[in-house]
Specification:
Keywords: Membrane, Transmembrane, Transmembrane helix. The chain has 181 residues and is mainly alpha-helical. The protein folds into 2 domains: 34 residues; 128 residues, no CATH class. It contains 7 helices and 2 strands. The chain has a two-stranded antiparallel sheet with strand order 1-2. It is elongated, with a radius of gyration of 24 Å.
Length: 181
């Protein structure tokens, strides 16, 4: 009877080792994705075109701009022009379209930090999306403003060196439609 228990114990132990052997790599990959999820998301968003053929899943910077335009049209009717208030959109002639888009992003992030500090919201260690959430929770911005700013952060993070002048101008125009306090 002791021999049967020993055999059963060994087989359970072997099964346990085999189970660990099978799941160790997927768990390691999952752990790495969790640790580097922000970096991975930024890399994916910076891809100009994401293609998964057989007529499915094609995402480009141009499509992100169009999606952002549609969102803005739903929130702010096209007949109403809003001004960017304190936000300055730089238009230096020697800047590349990509740099212009990055400047729009930078100005939006700076605006979020300034308005957060004015409303006693700690900005250190908070990402722009987290600042937006805090500003919305405290009633500093509306849900529509939050959605528009989120869309601007997303579209500007998706830009890359192949952005065109037209795309940069579209991003600048979208920025002007956000109503800032």
């Amino acid at each position: 009877m002791a021999i049967e228990t020993e055999i059963l114990y060994k087989s359970n132990f072997e099964v346990f080792v085999q189970l660990i052997d099978v799941i160790i790599w997927p768990l390691t990959l999952l752990f790495m994705f969790l640790i580097f999820r922000q970096s991975i998301a930024n890399v994916i968003l910076r891809l100009n075109t994401l293609k998964a053929d057989t007529s499915g899943l094609q995402l480009s910077f141009a499509q992100k701009i169009e999606a952002t335009k549609k969102l803005f049209q739903q929130i702010v009717p096209t007949t109403v022009e809003k001004s960017g208030g304190n936000i300055k959109v730089f238009n230096e002639e020697n800047d590349t379209p990509f740099r212009k888009i990055l400047k729009v992003r930078s100005e939006l992030i700076n605006y979020l930090k300034v308005i957060s500090e004015k409303n006693n919201i700690r900005v250190q260690d908070l990402e722009p999306l987290q600042l937006l959430q805090k500003l919305k929770e405290t009633g500093v911005i509306t849900i529509q403003q939050k959605k528009m700013m989120e869309a601007m952060l997303e579209v500007t993070s998706a830009a890359n060196d192949s952005a065109t002048e037209k795309q940069a101008m579209e991003v600048e125009e979208l920025m002007k439609k956000i109503e800032f306090k």
